[in-house]
Design brief:
alpha+beta
Length: 178
């Protein structure tokens, strides 16, 4: 990490509604890559570990990942994104949730998670985050996630595994089946 602050998206106005991101578009891919490098640099400082895989991911690796993305734009810049996959058991796994440092504490992560809940209802949602990333842990706890374990990823560094059962999703699923 160089200590240089990444360039901020330009626009003082409110951010837009989350939209699906198309990683086959080179500009979208580059904006997402820049965003996640800025966001994961903050997490790396919080948890004292800069080996977070997406922090070192190439553009090609990001483009090839098997994840779906929603993003939030502000002006011409991308200020937040969430990525997910479906596990074989039907659970929704949140793979990444990134917010540009200039957009912290403005509701970007909440807007992304609300949109994800709306378009991808799930009986079970799982996520992991650095245990020392207290803002992220607090966000997930506020959203009804419960810690179900920790996993050591490096000496002295753990991630907290969290899950949320969503009763309304199971009712929606049951209603669709009847």
């Amino acid at each position: 990490m160089t200590g240089q602050r990444p360039a901020a998206p330009e626009s003082p106005g409110p951010f837009a509604e989350p939209v699906r991101l198309d990683l086959s578009d080179p500009d979208t891919l580059r904006h997402l890559w820049d965003l996640q490098r800025a966001a994961y640099a903050v997490e790396a400082r919080l948890i004292g570990f800069d080996g977070i895989p997406p922090l070192h991911e190439s553009l090609e690796q990001l483009r090839a990942c098997d994840e779906s993305f929603l993003g939030v734009r502000e002006g011409a810049g991308l200020v937040g994104a969430v990525a997910w996959t479906r596990l074989p058991n039907g659970a929704l796994e949140i793979c990444r949730l990134v917010v540009h440092p200039v957009a912290h504490r403005r509701g970007v992560a909440t807007a992304l998670l609300d949109a994800l809940d709306s378009i991808e209802p799930a009986e079970l949602t799982v996520v992991s985050t650095g245990t020392a990333n207290l803002p992220a842990v607090a966000l997930y706890l506020r959203r009804g996630f419960i810690p179900v374990g920790e996993r050591q990823i490096a000496l002295g560094v753990t991630v907290t595994l969290l899950e949320r059962e969503n009763a309304s999703a199971s009712h929606e699923t049951a209603a669709v089946r009847t």
